[in-house]
Sequence to fold (320 residues):
Amino acid sequence: MDISVIVPLYNEEESLPHLVSWIERVMRENGFTYEIIMVDDGSNDKSWQVIEELSSSNRNIRGVKFRRNYGKSAALNEGFVHSVADVVITMDADLQDSPDEIPELYRMIKKEGYDLVSGWKKKRYDSKLAKNIPSKLYNATTRKLSGIKLHDFNCGLKAYRKDVVKSIEVYGEMHRYIPIIAKWAGFNKIGEKVVQHRKREFGTTKFGMNRFVNGYLDLMSIMFVSKFGKKPMHFFGLLGSLMFLVGIVSAIVLGAQKLIAVANGEMMRLVTDSPYFYLSLCTMIIGCQLFLTGFIAELIGRNSPTRNVYLIEKELNFDN
Fold:
């Protein structure tokens, strides 16, 4: 099979027939063999009924329905698990991503050898104050910290080599940082393509301003996990050891000053009367706590499951 199109969705009953019809036309015109995997992230409208109706007329349409809303990352991850094609393409269900971009994305993966190609919505139709400016700041920060030269990390329209989606796991709110996760997994040929951004025709956006705050927190998380996820003791143990060393050296200096003063017959206040004694003590305690945190994190990391499990209510057209 040539292409798996993964469509995560939440309450998009009106847009689904139009999206599927558009994708089918593009696939037919280009002679692609394909599957469309629609992951219903716990919708409370008629999205699943629409998916069932669409799949009844086209066996290439497959569906997964979560029992509750887990978020876009969970939906994408489940789609990755079920995909079987050589090239996997993800797009949002709100018709703001154009399926006409699929042939060129496919070519870049197959012909130019990219592991991942991310869309860049260079011209956007969102509110400049609410989305455009915060998005540019967020993308600039992510480029600086990750070293990946993309303009739009959070674009839903992306193409992947099959090996990529089978080698990564997307969880929490990490769908924004899939290029970083892919690079972390050893897939370094990451490209970008300017894609069309269309105005939303149906429904309302599912993202608020809090996504930008959460986005920066998630960025800090993924940068930490990418460097120390498999070796937390290298971070906590080193930091804890340094803090303990600073604390104990400070305490020794205070004690030595007291002993020298006594030997010279000088009057000097008690060591415990000095605020530096308590700072030294606190530094040693915090150092010990950090060291133990690293030790416990190592134990948890070595015994934790490798894959999240989501409660799936229904599936459509999967042979397995």
Notes: Residues 232-303 form one domain. The first helix runs from residue 16 to 30.
